[in-house]
């Protein structure tokens, strides 16, 4: 234990009031976890809890702070449920930090002058960014990277900047660099150590990370320090002088050179602190005053370490909550104890997977290395082994998929030779070791210290998150958790969140008139899933059901309204198909493939003006590729003004109704296939369904439109129309089956109405009509009985539902471009809508453009 500062003797215990008061100073991630732990143990029912928060907002996810720059709002980053404080009677005082502690009187004074008496004081003041004492560090244009307010200030200043520099190449430094590049700035990283992430990586891992980051267009300067921040005549940043004599021209500087414990309040109160900072605590996180505890990054643990990751802070929070609840330890009366924590971490920095765990750099005497490196692909893997075969730790760069199984094996002898754990598939290595091989005692979620056994006892991911909190921290364990959950063979539920199939959920929504996903989950979700967030399987599925029934339910069918926006698949989020380089394709509807010269000219002008790649598709449409997200509204506006609308190429809905030229032009045609194709496409456009729908109309039996390869296809006869259903191309092509023949125009439309609505009502998630037709009991004969002969008495209702869809159709592009609030979603960067995304680049090919695949698309996911 470090030597203490001068401190007065602990005061004599005061007679507590009838209701003891717990005052918490700080409301970051660790403080919120402490409040949750108190609530879980019922302490909030018997004590008054008051929280002094320095920031103007409740606790938020600082781990994912950088996701703000990719569109996540401060509210979405919040860690506090809207009614949490009120439900547990906790008093949260925002924007009112503690400024003084009187230990003798046991009071805390806040900045506003409020004085609070306490029986127990918990300090969760966190840390502050370290800014090197260099000349010019306070110049206009210098920032730190720690809070949402810091990010707001950076994005505002970046509007007038072209170049940015980050001082620090550690975790937060690389995140800050990703944020600056995402804001459209040419970005430099300056790191005093000889490699990036010097605390977590060795030389090999740092070199692999450096190569990948430099390939993204960032300039990296390692082994040099910042000597001075240079300024212009107005006192604003103009550059940085480095210790090697070079100068980096920059308009903005972000200091991210590490953090220091915020212990000033404790020092001024006479509490014991460490020589290098941190409030000294014992194994129960008590300070030198028995009435005062310290948790998180402000605390110097009993092992002499200040822990800078959130997982140890959570363990400290749990420890203090258990102490205050009167719990005993596993050894009886010794009580709960914090004796150290796992500092392993898996991160995604600038889109690069990085992980380290255990003795990552081989500090143990006699340790041996197993190393795999591929500099071409930016992959580096190092395992540190004891001579007896025990796994001591490791580093993974570029491919960290094995982290979830390797970290829990630390301290044991892996069941397979170590080289099998690092070799990639195809390099002679057998299949990778899966989490199934781990013992039940293996810790899967290090943020919340949750074991495999605790996870395996749950039935679904929602229950895991609700009961154990595993997967709610940094998120790196979610993939492993998914592999550990029971597969429930024979279970009919859509997913672990719902014990119902998609078709059953459709009936529940329709019959009970459920109008939101949250309502459906709370009322009909699986036990343990209710009140949760759901999963990526059920959210888009229920969103599709709600959209299909929107006219029936009397709610908005616009897929980005309210709650619906958070449920959609990736493409539906932006009403466009995302492409491999992060750009989007725009596909206007061209019913039946018929288009006027004027409209062709408009498409050509739009493609030329926005620099888009154009291609005529097999579905008789024109695709415009290469649009940035911020360009989409401008493109749509031009197209909508010319009479175009969304072709729904992004949705699980009708794509196109293809046609030949038919009787009007072709000497073999026996019906007007173009007219019918246009009528069908305009009738079923925007119809949300379990899977995409394709159709075609051929004007004669020669079948030039390939109607029998479609979900519903129409072939003209001398007496009318033949209707085929259940066809598709793809990897498992299937010819459609004849449902009815020689239909009139009205009879054809009426049968298609019934067929599509019956399919939407009874199909499974992502089930094409072909698979549905083969799966459904009775197959084609049953479907014919239902939609042609009305064997179930459903036809009138199916027709009514389709009529409601047709009457309620609205073009999603027009709805978007005419609403300023909806347009805010479509920006590359939240602060600079007109700044192009630097990761979306193209190269010329055949007088057009194609994606530049040598540029890696950034994925600014934060995980500190």
Structure in words:
This protein has 864 residues and is α/β, with parallel strands linked by helices. β34 and β35 (720-725) form a beta hairpin. It has a 5-stranded parallel sheet. α1 runs parallel beside α9 and α15 packs across α17. The longest helix is centred in the last third of the chain and has 18 residues, at 745-762. It has 28 helices and 38 strands.
Work out the oligomeric state of the chains in this entry.
Answer: single chain
Task: Categorize the overall geometry.
Answer: globular
Strand order in space, largest sheet: 3-2-1-7-19
Number of strands: 38
The computed structural class is alpha/beta
Question: Considering DSSP H and I runs of 4 or more, what fraction of the residues is helical?
Answer: 25-40%
Q: What is the end-to-end distance?
A: 27 Å
Strand fraction: 15-25%
Radius of gyration computed on alpha carbons: 31 Å
Can you summarize the main beta sheet?
5 strands, parallel
Annotation field: number of helices: 28
Average per-residue pLDDT, rounded, comes to: 85
Low-confidence stretches: 1-16, 426-431, 487-491, 855-864
